[in-house]
Write a structure and sequence with these properties.
Shape: globular
Strand order of the largest sheet: 1-2-3-7-6
Order of helices and strands: HHEHHHEHEEEHEHEHHHH
Number of strands: 7
Radius of gyration: 22 Å
Strand content: 5-15%
Number of helices: 12
Distance between the termini: 79 Å
Length: 377
């Protein structure tokens, strides 16, 4: 099912070859392979996808602002990638298990994350801000590509259990150069694990363009592992939804793993510690700005007279509510006492942990004793 290319210069970045259902100016295209997977998506469903992406962008904007104001240690923006994240995540069942990277704000939102879940780890208040089993979503992975192995392990467990869940791993184009991702594909293929690999090709691995590490489309690597793949327009939320519905059906019905390459663009910095103006051309950024995923859904709905001013106001108000709640969760966060670092280390307490707690408490107490002694002198 992969959309392929003839080998031409720099075609790892081309967007003409991708599977697409909505053009940047809002025209609905026909696609024999993808259309059946979104036949049920009417105007109301499209408005729902637009609403999701708008809220995600607002959360992202708030996260960047909070970091710039010194309230968060770091933030990994996702502006421009909302369609990839929301479209694919809306295709999952509640009991599927997702393994995201640190940038999948939209995936977390769709899976049910609360406002605090987006910020407390970046503020340094928690290692994981939610119980992964509450959302069936693993803690966002910082180590590049490691989550691909985690997803395959979970997928192999699904096979052993004899259920029909699907596991999914999200990673960027840079992660495909990591051994972990390639090893994960070897195991997934060999054991026919029900896993969907989602490569978000946002054109830049920090300051390195994708053309340095991928002279050909990344999706073309997967068939070499025996894994079918599809290259999809990552700024087209409808195409992303269709692609993931196809992929999860393929994996869920015992046919093994699938690889999706979503071709999109990171409009902002890699993280808030990065300055993309040092390595990116302004014209390139503007070209991608004209392919904005939110704007194309709005354009499609307006073509159908299904996008009203009232709807736009309601969506904006909901997005602002989310932004305010994310800010409140950040500013009202309680910094834990140092001793609490030993909480939740194990599911059940044990004597070794008790001994460590006692030693650490004594160490912390020594600072109070020193201060008291200084005051006495």
């Amino acid at each position: 099912m992969m959309h392929t290319l003839s080998p031409t210069a720099d075609h790892a970045t081309d967007t003409d070859d991708v599977a697409r259902l909505i053009t940047p100016d809002g025209e609905r295209l026909a696609d024999r392979e993808l259309d059946p997977w979104v036949a049920d998506v009417d105007a109301e469903a499209l408005r729902g996808l637009y609403r999701d992406m708008t809220v995600v962008r607002r959360i992202d904007t708030e996260g960047v602002a909070l970091q710039r104001q010194g309230q968060l240690g770091l933030w990994a923006p996702c502006q421009g990638q909302e369609a990839t994240q929301v479209g694919t995540a809306r295709a999952f069942r509640a009991d599927d298990f997702v393994f995201p990277s640190y940038r999948e704000i939209g995936v977390g939102f769709v899976r049910g994350a609360a406002p605090a879940d987006f910020v407390l780890a970046w503020r340094g208040e928690a290692h994981s801000t939610y119980n992964p089993y509450d959302l069936n979503t693993a803690t966002p992975q910082i180590i590049i590509g490691a989550q691909a192995l985690h997803a395959v392990g979970y997928g192999m467990g699904i096979t052993f259990d004899g259920t029909d869940q699907v596991a999914a791993a999200y990673f960027g184009d840079g992660a495909t150069s990591q051994g972990d991702v390639n090893e994960a594909m070897v195991f997934a293929s060999s054991f026919r694990a029900p896993v969907v690999f989602v490569c978000t090709n946002n054109q830049w691995a920090i300051s390195e363009p994708v053309t340095v590490q991928a002279k050909f489309p990344i999706a073309g690597r997967a068939p070499g592992f025996g894994i079918p793949s599809l290259r999809v327009d990552g700024n087209d939320v409808l195409a992303c939804l269709a692609a993931m519905r196809w992929a999860t059906d393929h994996a869920r019905t015992g046919n093994g793993p699938v690889f999706l390459e979503a071709v999109t663009y990171r409009m902002g910095p890699h993280t808030t510690s990065d300055d993309p103006t040092r390595y990116r051309d302004k014209d390139e950024v503007e070209r991608w700005r004209r392919r904005d995923p939110l704007a194309r859904v709005e354009a499609l709905l307006r073509r159908r007279d299904e996008f009203s001013d009232e709807f736009a106001r309601d969506v904006a108000a909901e997005a602002d509510r989310w932004g305010a709640e994310v800010r409140a969760a950040t500013l009202n966060a309680r910094t834990k006492e140092p001793i609490e670092i030993l909480d939740h280390v194990y599911a059940e307490p044990h004597v070794g942990l008790d001994a460590q707690r006692a030693d650490f408490a004594a160490y912390l107490g020594s600072f109070s004793d020193a201060v008291a002694g200084g005051e006495a002198r």
